[in-house]
Write a structure and sequence with these properties.
heterodimer, A: mainly beta, 6-stranded mixed beta sheet, globular, B: 7-stranded mixed beta sheet, 11 strands
Chain lengths: 114, 118
């Protein structure tokens, strides 16, 4: 079974600075999807960014970018120019190509300091 | 429109009650999901419906009974729950294109129903 590991329970960043959240995963599959979701105190899960495993190019969405290292099974999220609204729990998630089963990491709580 | 709606927002029930959670999407998605999320924990997959058929059941106790009446609607029927079942219940949907998959097969989540079992 696939497992997702987020080794940083909590992170903090100064407003306007850059922060990187780590995620590693374990799988025997060659094709899969990876996601970062954000969950603010409202508890709504919001998609931040997604990556297909067969794409070598790292995904970017405005201030959010990933560093996808397939061989190392690593999928980190970089947030540039951090804003107060970025404060939330961030979950890394793995979704199998073969089915709809999605597994989440334990999450990293990000605090943004003004 | 990437909206998934869930009702009710909050639910308090006794262990002998029968209640239902409702989830709805109008994005034309053909896969719908139920997750359970305890406080300070990640969501845990419970059930997946694909094209109105149950495709994944993660060994969930029978006191939780899912139902997918049509492609837009997903229900979770609750009966004889335990206090440890208190949690946030999240619904999600995705395109689930056939054949093959595409990047559009991303799961979009509803706001959740906060369930308290007394």
């Amino acid at each position: 079974a696939q497992t997702v590991t987020q080794s940083q329970p909590e992170m903090s960043v100064q407003e306007a600075e850059t922060v990187t959240l780590s995620c590693t995963y374990d799988t025997s599959e060659s094709d899969y999807y990876l996601f970062w979701y954000k969950q603010p105190p409202s508890r709504q899960m919001i998609l931040v960014i997604r990556q297909e495993a067969y794409k070598q190019q790292n995904a970017t969405e405005n201030r959010f970018s990933v560093n996808f290292q397939k061989a190392a099974k690593s999928f980190s999220l970089k947030i540039s120019d951090s804003q107060l609204g970025d404060a939330a729990m961030y979950f890394c998630a793995y979704r199998s190509w073969a089915n709809n089963d999605m597994r989440f990491g334990a999450g990293t709580r990000l605090t943004v300091k003004p | 429109d990437t909206e998934v709606t869930q009702t009710p927002k909050h639910l308090v029930m006794g262990m002998t009650n029968k209640k239902s959670l409702k989830c709805e999407q109008h994005m034309g998605h053909r896969a719908m999901y139920w997750y359970k999320q305890k406080a300070k924990k990640p969501p845990e997959l419970m059930f997946v419906y694909s094209y109105e058929k149950l495709s994944i059941n993660e060994s969930v106790p029978s006191r939780f009974s899912p139902e997918c009446p049509n492609s837009s609607l997903l229900n979770l029927h609750l009966h004889a729950l335990q206090p440890e079942d208190s949690a946030l219940y999240l619904c999600a949907s995705s395109q689930d294109e056939r054949p093959g998959r595409s990047i559009t097969d991303t799961q979009y989540f509803g706001p959740g129903t906060r369930l308290t079992v007394l």
